[in-house]
Amino acid sequence: MTLKALSHGGWPKSSLPPPPPAEDPPPLSLSVESEESQKPQDMDGSLHQLRKALAPYCRQIVNNRYFQLAMFLALLMALFLPDLWVILNQADNSVLDVLLTLVGVLFVFEVSVQSIGMHKTYLYSFFFWMDVLGAASLLLDLSYITQLDQEVGGDDVSNNVIIMRAARIAKLGARAGRFTKLAKLLRFLPGMGNVDDGAGTAKLISSKLITALSTRTSCLIILLVMIMPLFNLWAYPEEDWSPNSFINILEACYMRYPARFQQQLTEITAFYDQKSYHPWRVRARNMQHPVEVTNALPWNSPNGPPTRMSNNVVFTSDHLIVEFNFMSPNQLDAWMNIILLLIVMILMIAFSLILSQSVSSIVLKPLEQLLTQVRQMASTIFQSVTDMEVVMKEEAKDDRSEESVEDAKKFGNETQLLAKVVQKLAVISEITMNKPVLDAQTLQNLAEGDRAVISGFQGTIQDTEFADRGDVENGLDMEAIELAQRAMVENAGLSMELIDSWNLNPLELDKARNHVAAMYFCSSHNHGVEFDSVVMGNFLSDAESGYVKSAPYHNWFHAVDTTHGVYRMLQLCAADAYLTREERYAVLVSAVCHDIGHPGLNNGFLVETSHELALRYNDKSPLENMHCSKMFELVGQARCNIFSTLSKTQYHEVRKVCVEAILHTDNAQHFSMIKDVQMLYEVNSDLWDASRNLFLQEDEPCLAQEAIECLRLPDNRKLVLNLTLHTSDISNSMKPFRISRIWAWQVLEEFFVQGDAEARLGVPVQALNDRNTVNRPFSQVGFIEFLVSPLIFAAMKILPATEHLAVQMLMNARSWQKQWEAEGKVPPSDSDKKLLNERIIKMENKFRTSQAGKNPPEKLERN
């Protein structure tokens, strides 16, 4: 069938068991059998509904000015309170702990309400991670969580070093968290807030640029401030060893000369009179001491003990305990921390403002002037058309002279030309601005089965510089290569007549013949790029191994089938006239790997089950991103590096084409691609119509030179490459009905296997996945009508060689109609038959319209 069709997702091979037989499917490894194990899934659905219900209230809280003011004050408290507490020399941290705990609760609450209210824009964004890191770092400022033992053994120097290093790490962690909170200040800068929808394109672009540049500059400043201390983190700590010397001298005096202990104590304590820290108490341990020592101890400094216990540092020896007051050094350190915070804030704000002004002067003002001129010019054109028509009519009435009549005719031609331009602009505007190919209103009017086809195709869950480089320049003997490739094909038991037709079905070929066919499609004579044939053979063999053999549809046979479709389209559409060698090579090998690793479960399933691939790629085309990654992992091996003969520039060009083309096989891109093709036609409709007439008059594939020049433009080449691979990917319903029906059964079986898994997991069963309710022939008619026909009808306007695909597609629709009428479980009523017949007639009329009335209707009847 055609339905890549309808699925565009899956899991890595390693995470799934082989799909079970269709008759009696055993449970998947993810399936759940008991009601108890289904409860978490039900709970997830309930949480999702609860989040949707709470989202409006959370957004209201976040946008409330009083809440924003409270969070700003909490931010300032988190930044400065720990250091201010040290400077103010508070006795303990009990009040500070209460305040910081409240601030931490506010931060957690803020993260929660923003994650619920702005789930798509805030969750996992830059500010989200900054908020989480900042809130977590508050734990390092809470004294009841981080307590360092400050009693240091006088003889255990290594223990002292370890404690100092641990203290330094804790301070660095707390400081890092405070710095990350500074990033939130960027929200209050000019241009960093949300821009209203009516602000204009220029201001919107300027706001996004300012936000991106400012956040990156702020991160750079914060990282520099945080990373610089790391270079000294593991160095031997610089410290004053005088406290250790103090207690060592006293201990030695105690042991050897007890009579001199009092004198020695007085002399040593006098040493600290000029220091910012000093010993304030000397005590003896609980044991028998000499009388001289007992009389001298305990000794207390006249300055008294420190107010804050964290300023009290204790040193011990075998017989003595000495306590130091480090209030002044700790206060100095706190002052330095505050100054550092202020400097970082000033740097962040200053550079962000400078960037804002730069963006405004470089981007905003010129862009506003340009858009203003565009609006004025458009207004002038529309007004001029009306004014000139009025003037023309008035002059024709007042002046009947022959010269005036002739001038009026010329003037009328000018007016008609302008009117035609305006009409063209109106058509283009309608395509881009008015409504999508299938808008909500159209979907609402469709039957449930037809809506299921569209939803299933997109993998969603139903919810109520061209250079003409010839082959001679490449130094390749294309004729010899082609003869060798043809001989290889014939020796494998294939015929060139089959290869060069749409009757090739890889499902009917063995492994060796499919390998030969793939080698022929990727051969140099089809694109002009030289490569090592042994390396290409290794690449194709490893690519085949990368596909999941048990997947009913997305397997190696589908890859060969898609590659054949790309080969045929490049051949029939004379792509060598407007696509470079490297681009044709890239799109062919992209077809080989466009579904590598696909196990038959689509993107919607991955997202719904929070699979690892969906989490890795943020729910954005997880499968297609995985296919690209696996392809270039394969090419990264020397034995499979089919791009090794390319220059660095050519390799980057090829890689860009491969990634772009494979990502556009995500069926979520389907309708936007149709719009792009329609736009390309409408902008140059006269050119394409003339080119189509030339194509119909010639026996060989050809296009008008003007059309070739248009297709050589970079954006148009990229569109054609993406269109070629995507059309080939879903081309099954445009092939002979015998082949189309085989593929249809394959893809539907893959859907049903996924549907069985969804039912067991308790997640919503996606459209077309219920084997008990889907009408197979009817689903194919809907697939052709709503999805394939809009694409091929648009494509045939710029690539007229694809017209015969549309003809075969319409013939297949009639065949599916007959099978639906004859083989349905429940015979359709006459009214249902009439309705489906009218739908197919409508498609046939659209086909004739796309032909611009130049082909007879009888062409639909040919075989």
UniProtKB/TrEMBL annotation:
Positions with a binding annotation for AMP: H554, N555, W556, F557, H558, D595, D729, Q780
GO cellular component, one term: membrane
A GO molecular function held by the record: metal ion binding
Active site: H554
TM spans (from-to): 66-88, 95-116, 122-140, 217-236, 334-355
Record domain PDEase: where: 476-823
Bias kind Pro residues: ranges: 15-28
Protein name: Phosphodiesterase
Protein source organism: Cladocopium goreaui
